Amino acid sequence: MLLQGKKALILGLANNKSIAYGIANAFKEQGARLAFNYVGDAIKKRVEPLSEELGGEFTFQCDVTDDAQIQAAADLVKEKRIEGISDLNDETNRKGMRIVIDVRKDANPQVVLNQLYQYTQLQDTVGVIMLAIDHKVPKVMTLKQMIQKYVEFQDEVVRRRTQYDLKKARERAHILEGLKKATDIVDELIATIRACKGGMSEAKAAIMEQFGFDDPQADAIVKLQLGRLAGLEILKIEEELGSLNAKIRDWEEILADDARVLEIVKSELLEMKRRFGDDRRTEIETVTGEVDIEDLIAEEQCVYTLTEAGYIKRQLKATYQAQKRGGRGISGMTRKEEDIVQEMFVGSTHDYVLFVTDKGRLFRIKGYTIAEGSRTSKGTNIVNLLQLAEGEKVTNMLCQSKDTTNEGGFVTMVTKQGLIKRTPLEQYANIRKSGLIGIALNEGDALAWTRLTSGHDMLIVATRNGQAIRFNEEDARPMGRNGHGVRAIRLAEGDEVVGVCICREGGTVLTVTENGKGRRSDIDTYRITARGGKGIRNYDVSRDKVAAVKIVDDVDDVLLSSQEGIIIRLHANEIPLQSRYGSGVRVMRLGENDKVMVLARTDHDDEAQTEQIDTSDADAEPTAEQLAAMEAADAAAAAEAPEADDKGEE
Hints:
Helix 4 packs across helix 9 (258-276) and helix 6 (200-211) crosses helix 7 (215-222). This protein has 10 helices and 32 strands. 26% of the residues lie in helices and 26% in strands.
């Protein structure tokens, strides 16, 4: 509603009373609206806003005073946990508590209201123990289970009642059949009874012996009054017998048909509602107007960067426009002295960001919880976001799409010493704030790469000294979260893994060196070999070391980051396609003592202005003789049998 030209939310509370009396009185007298949101063992009570748009006034018990409510809201505004409130006024009177909150014109009232519900006692949780006796056993149930058990109990009541009625009807029908038979031979029965010199028991025995009646029928016959032998009375016996037979057939059908039983339960409940029901004073419903905080955050594509010193930030992807190959780039962050960029990727603000530490623990947070920084800011220290132990350091950061399911996928990790470990993704379904163990690392080892894989992906593992091996991830059997892993590639002394690629159709392998040279190569030139071998040549490192590798498509852009924090963006299709033996072209010009550290793939920017690629600084491809010699050396290395996995790596 409008209040003096400003948008305002008016919130109402009841006078202070005991919890039990206040809630009961609100339901009984004021017709309060209870937002019943059952969450295991609690229900939520909330104070609804009183405005012309949202409904009439009602009161609700609250166990805090109006001064406390106002002070709590004021503190939240002062601490900037709630933004958008311009003023708070206390208009409490003898009719109840009344707080008027003025909202700034540029603020979203629904967002402010949801924040008030989240951070104050305007919405609170009331503990509930749904305890009931189920088959002589006490159980705590959910609301749904409680309703299901009640329906099952009513089903049992109907069945037992029907069985009892059926039993009594059969007994009565049996006696009526005996009486009907007796009316046809009444003269013989009278003569037999008169011939008995003893009492009623002798007469019963004689009737049972001569005419084949059982004990209940004979008992009814000897007790039969003579007046029941009149024609009209005999007709009543036949009508009662016919009616009982019809009921017996109906009750037998009910017991044989579960749907009939539930239909009777439903009809009896509706009849109870008609006879005793009145207007409901509470509501069991989804809380209207409540919006997930994530829905209020715009979904945007951002560049996430993490430095070796543990500073993380996100920036809008549009910050980095595409440049021509060989450009110097723009400054991506202000770093601490001697700090370098360690991880970088592009993801949505609604995606999950996974972190793996040097102690093998895995953490997960939402992308929007990472503070957005300016282009030159250094970001936020990761210890402010994750519960890291003393001395623990994040070594890998990756993106998990918000739409990713936990079924069928794997968390695949490759260490710098060349070990690979796959763990089913469902083992990470519930990641605590304190993290989960992801891998047991050997002494001196560290994670080089962590990604989510399908279970059937083809991987290329590349090393700093220019070797690469391609194999199916299924060659590495799945392990538990505490496993060490098995060998992915056999490394030469002084070598280490710098990257791993997941192969996909139509992609090319982009290799970038520390000095800023790069080239793309066909995936098919990396032949499939057994896991654990030395691999084949990926790059001639006599001139330069490999910094990173990535599978890219012609429609992709790539981001390169140097240890000085310089970031450049360029189109992948402008990087020349060469053989595995080509040295590539200059993709990034670096300052003195600077080198490429991180390579990331992102979507193509069609609006970016680019220049024609200058390939004048490209080195010549190897001659046919040189190429044949290189291929022969690769074939000889690939022919060597892979070493068996070291003991204890599992």
